[in-house]
C-alpha cells in the first residue's frame, strides 16, 4: 500500500535509487501521489497564452548590434537564444546523446553515482529538493558535476558521457566568457569586468532527463524557479517544454532551435547588476510526448561549494539616482540560503536592503 505521508514516500522512493526513469520503465499508468502538483501549480499551467508577438529573442553572435540586443534581452526577458556561438553542432549532438545514454543505462550502472551529497564530484539524483520540498516532486532525473575551474577526473565520470562532457565544458568556458564580455559592455563597463569578477570561472553542469509521463497534466518537469548563477547556458533537444515568465504574467515557450543555445540571467547577476538585468523565472512542463526530453544545463556558479568571495551591487553602476538595492554577501552565504529552501522560493529577496 502506497504511503500517504509525503516524507515517507520520498524516502522510500529515494532508497530505490531508480529515479523517475525507473518508475516510468515499470509501466505505471498513474503517477505516485508525491508527484501530483498542487492545485496552484496546476492552475498556473492553464494560464492564458501569451500574445503572438511575444517571442524569445534569438541573437546571432556573429551579427550586428549584439551588445544592444543582448542588453535589451537581459533587461526585458532575462533569457535569450544564441546562434552562431562557435560550438560545433556535432559537439552539441554528442553531448545530448551522451547524457541520454547515461540515463538510459541499466539502473545498476547508475546506482553507484546516486547521492545527495553535492560536495561529491559527480552525483545522480531525482529533485535536489526532494526532501526539503513539502509540495510535489518533479518528473525528472539529474546527473550533475562541478566541471570548472577544477574539472573532474575522466575516470570519475560515467564512461558513457565523460569524454564529451569534458569537451563540451571547455567549449562552454569560451562561450561563457564571450557572453560575460557582451553583458559587461551592455552594462556600460569594461568588457572584462564580469570575467574579472569570476562570473564565468565556475561551472556546475546538470544533465536533465524527463521521461515520458503517463499523466503529464498532473505534475511538472521542474517547477518555476530562478537560477543560482551569474549566467546559465542550456542545451536542449527537440522535444520542448521549457517556458519563461515574461512581465510577471505570460508563460512563453522557449521553442527548441537546432544548433541554438539558451542563455539566461541568474540571481547572482541580477544582484550585482542592481536589478538592471533580471533573473529569468522559468519552468519545464511534464513530458507528455512518447520520447524522453534531455537537456544539459551549465550554471556559471560555484553552486553549493564554499566560496568566501564577497559580492554585491557593482559600485560603478551605483549613483544617487540608483542606490544599492542589495547588501553584500559571500557566495557561501548565498549557497546556504539556496540549499535551505525549495526550488520555487526566491533567494534574491534575502539580500534586499
TrEMBL record:
**Alphabetized UniProt keyword annotations:** Iron, Metal-binding, Oxidoreductase
Record bears the keyword Transmembrane helix: no
Q: Which InterPro entries has this protein been placed in?
A: DIOX_N, IPNS-like_FE2OG_OXY, IPNS-like_sf, Oxoglu/Fe-dep_dioxygenase_dom
| Stored Gene3D superfamilies | B-lactam Antibiotic, Isopenicillin N Synthase, Chain
Domain Fe2OG dioxygenase: where?
201-303
Q: What is this protein called?
A: Fe2OG dioxygenase domain-containing protein
* Single GO molecular function: dioxygenase activity
The record ties this protein, via PANTHER family, to:
1-AMINOCYCLOPROPANE-1-CARBOXYLATE OXIDASE HOMOLOG 4-RELATED, OXIDOREDUCTASE, 2OG-FE II OXYGENASE FAMILY PROTEIN
Instruction: Provide the family line.
Output: Belongs to the iron/ascorbate-dependent oxidoreductase family.
- What species is given as this protein's source? Capsella rubella
Top-level taxon in the UniProt lineage: Eukaryota
The record's Pfam families line, in alphabetical order, gives: 2OG-FeII_Oxy, DIOX_N
Required cofactors, per record? Fe cation
Amino acid at each position: 500500500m502506497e504511503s500517504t505521508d509525503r516524507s515517507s514516500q520520498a524516502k522510500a522512493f529515494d532508497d530505490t535509487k531508480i529515479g523517475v526513469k525507473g518508475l516510468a520503465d515499470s509501466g505505471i499508468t498513474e503517477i505516485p501521489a508525491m508527484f501530483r502538483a498542487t492545485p496552484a501549480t496546476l492552475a498556473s499551467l492553464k494560464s492564458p497564452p501569451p500574445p503572438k508577438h511575444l517571442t524569445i529573442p534569438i541573437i546571432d553572435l556573429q551579427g550586428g548590434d549584439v551588445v544592444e540586443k543582448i542588453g535589451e534581452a537581459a533587461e526585458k526577458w532575462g533569457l535569450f537564444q544564441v546562434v552562431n556561438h562557435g560550438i560545433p553542432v556535432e559537439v552539441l549532438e554528442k553531448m545530448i546523446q551522451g547524457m541520454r545514454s547515461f540515463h538510459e543505462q541499466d539502473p545498476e550502472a547508475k546506482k553507484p553515482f546516486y547521492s545527495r551529497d553535492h560536495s561529491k564530484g559527480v552525483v545522480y539524483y531525482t529533485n535536489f529538493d526532494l526532501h526539503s520540498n513539502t509540495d510535489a516532486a518533479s518528473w525528472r532525473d539529474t546527473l550533475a558535476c562541478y566541471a570548472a575551474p577544477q574539472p573532474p577526473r575522466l575516470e570519475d565520470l560515467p564512461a558513457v558521457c565523460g569524454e564529451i562532457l569534458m569537451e563540451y565544458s571547455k567549449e562552454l568556458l569560451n562561450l561563457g566568457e564571450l557572453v560575460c564580455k557582451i553583458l559587461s559592455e551592455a552594462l556600460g563597463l569594461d568588457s572584462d569586468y564580469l570575467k574579472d569578477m569570476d562570473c564565468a570561472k565556475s561551472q556546475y553542469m546538470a544533465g536533465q532527463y524527463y521521461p515520458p509521463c503517463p499523466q503529464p497534466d498532473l505534475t511538472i518537469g521542474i517547477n518555476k524557479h530562478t537560477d543560482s548563477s551569474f549566467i546559465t547556458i542550456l542545451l536542449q533537444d527537440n522535444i520542448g517544454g521549457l517556458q519563461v515568465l515574461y512581465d510577471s504574467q505570460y508563460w512563453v515557450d522557449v521553442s527548441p532551435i537546432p544548433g541554438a543555445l539558451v542563455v539566461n540571467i541568474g540571481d547572482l547577476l541580477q544582484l550585482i547588476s542592481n536589478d538592471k538585468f533580471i533573473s529569468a523565472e522559468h519552468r519545464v512542463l511534464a513530458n507528455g510526448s512518447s520520447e524522453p526530453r534531455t537537456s544539459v544545463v551549465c550554471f556559471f556558479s560555484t553552486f553549493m561549494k564554499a566560496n568566501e568571495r564577497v559580492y554585491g551591487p557593482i559600485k560603478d553602476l551605483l549613483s544617487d539616482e540608483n542606490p544599492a538595492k542589495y547588501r553584500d554577501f559571500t557566495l557561501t552565504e548565498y549557497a546556504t540560503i539556496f540549499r535551505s529552501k525549495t526550488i520555487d522560493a526566491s533567494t534574491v529577496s534575502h539580500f534586499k536592503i
